[in-house]
Amino acid sequence: MQTLQDLRYGVRMLLKRPGFTLVAIATLALGIGANTAIFSVVNAVMLRPLPYPEPERVMQLGLDLSGGTMTASQPKFVFWRDHQQSFEAVAATQGVGSGINLAGGDEPEYVRGLRVSADFFSVIGIGPRVGRGFTPQEDSPTGERVVILSHELWQRRFAADPALVGKAISLNSENYTVVGVMPEGFEYTSPADLFVPLRTNPASRDEGHNYTVLGRLRPGVTLAQANSDMQLVFAGFKAAYPQMLWKRETGISVRPYLESLTVSVRPLLLILLGAVGFVLLIACVNVANLQLVRAAARQREMAIRRAMGAGVGRIVRQLVTEGVLLALAGGAAGLLLAVWGTEMLVALVPERMIPRVAESHPDWRVLVFTLVTSVVTGLIFALAPAIQAARVDVNHSLKEGEGKGTVGVGRGRLRNVLVIIEVALSLVLLAGAALLVRSFANLRQVEPGFDPHGVLTFQIAPNGARYETTAGNADLFRRALERIKSLPGVEAAAVTSNLPLDAWLNLTVEVEGRPESQSSTEYRMVTPEYFRVMKMKLKEGREFTEADKAGAESVVIVNESYARRFLAKDGPLGQHLVVQRSVEGSRPIEVVGVVADAKQFGLNTQAPPTVFVPIDQIPDKLLKVARQFVTMKFVIRTSVDPLSLAAAVKKEMLGLDASLPVTAVRSMDQVVERSLAPNRLNMTLLGVFAAIGLLLAAVGIYGVMSYSVAQRTGEIGIRMALGARGADVMKLVLRHGMKLALVGVVTGLGGAFALTRVMEGMLFGVSATDPLTFTVIALLLVAVALLACWLPARRATKVDPLVALRYE
Fold first, then answer.
1. Which residues form the domain of 120?
2. Are 439 and 471 found together in one domain?
3. Element (H, E) at 612
4. Strand 109-111 with 100-102, pairing
5. Structural domain count of the chain
6. What is d(CA 658, CA 715) in angstroms, rounded to the nearest whole number?
7. 487 Cβ partners below 8 Å, 6+ apart?
8. Are residues 382 and 512 in the same domain?
9. Predicted confidence (pLDDT) per residue in 337-390, tens digit
10. Is residue 57 part of a domain?
């Protein structure tokens, strides 16, 4: 009964002062809404179980290396699968890097494919909704060509025809029999339109580590037991194939699949969660200050209630109830704000940067988080006025003149402390955001090693019988380039297997006669004009020419990084390299040139050692290996807006071969911008949170100083009546406010020096404790605080002494 009374009374008191209530709710909505939006993402990415039966039993297996983990090779996967004891099933997956061309319909379509071993659907725990999965025979090197479609592709391309199972469709100009259709909405690590058998060869000795290995634990087997079992498997493999171990390979890692998916984005999400936590604390401090001001006005009310017999606990409970009601109202508004904010946040996230981010939406975890956050927030900011109410002096407060809002020294000190706290928290947020802004600006100044301006790019996947050989590919590219070069506005055109700052391809390369030089190296297949189109500077030797054909002396061009690391002793020109020695047909190729480094993994990382080879000279089997992982990209330097040629280029390509879809049409400027998208996201989000924190801090300082001026109206009137000038009064008010701001800035600088170190991995070209950044941010916050203090100080100078004395 008393609780209901407290609730009814609390609602009446909040409605009685709508201005205070609206300001408090808006402040809390910002803090709780920002927290709920970020938590919605954290929940979708890190907390929500994977959409598989008993997902906690799905593990990822990988090489345990000193400094990290990685995927497995064919021989390792087969050995692990056949010798383990802890898993019901072990499967491997591999992306179809070169893509799949789906024929039929008005126009060919480039679709995303995934190679999976026969046990994949058993490991995931979800099989085809229509038809069946793959058999071990179909998963063998000589197995039949079969395919399982995604539900979305089945509906979009085949009108959800149930009779399609058992029929053939054309993929890469080959007939594949459809044996199944996956359930609607099924998704693995990334969207896949279809699944084909991995067809692993148990006799293979291929050392390319391109398999993602998953296993489903047997019932009752723990993660620790599985790790122990796989160490025995590792020892067995080491004894059987010692030459196939990597130098840093120390075992086999087993960890939950969800953890593996999120390990790279966990630090970013935790930093953002911490940042919005600071925003919420600033909001709490602001509302606590508002509550203290309100409590001062209600001091006489509390004294009367005490005099009439209300106990301290009863009054404290009433104030806490009002605080929680206010927080719940702010939480409800914040939840609505979070729904919109989450949609905006998901739209900002670059494709595939954060796994499962598209699943971010409110569920029971988000609702519980919002509820708990609201209640805790209400308790936090209601605590200070409740404590003050418990200490009220009944006799003193009931004297005439009290109840006008006069506040004791203790309460004034508490408000001052709260201002210092929110200034300090704001400075920490601003420092982090400023460091990211400087990092982004530094990245924009980095020379990428090529000129992206005026370059159009697109990709094709020339798969199928006609394009199995190097000669078939070379002829296609020659005819395509002739057509493209004839278009108005085209200055030069070339083909490459990989674009800078985009997908990459590693193959094993060694210097002839130096086995110790063997390394995983970036490998590029290009046509002769590639360096001219990209404007990559030649440092030594020569570029490729039309004379570098099949049958001519095999040649290679290396970048500066490769030359420095492997060819510095005897000079690069004239030395010979061997690419993927294990592939039949690989032969030594002569280094004829060195080009400048070009960024590959990002503008914030060093260019990797890279070799370039003419497409015409690639052995057929080596081409087959490389094309498992890449599509072929055209790069076209233009004298006009590159994207204005997109339609004409696509028309020419379809006229050349109507079975080859043209995809990923974009400018190289867009490729560069896409590589910067994660850095832009980090900067934008932390910048928004810092701006909210700064706004709340400014409002908090202004509120406290306004209330201080109102409380000192009588004192100011006496001073002015005794001859004080307006400038003296302004100094008095500014001195008090700026003292609080400066203490907050100093405190915040100490916190920022400690906390920004966790951001070191997100910074480029600037230290986590950069003095210039911290100085500028401190001055900015001081300026904002000065403005927030100046407005009430200016009002104080206009006080009429006679009015002030009558007020007193």
1. 68-247
2. no
3. strand 610-614
4. antiparallel
5. 3
6. 88
7. 645, 648, 649, 652
8. no
9. 999 989 888 888 887 788 888 888 888 899 999 999 898 888 887 776 666 655
10. no
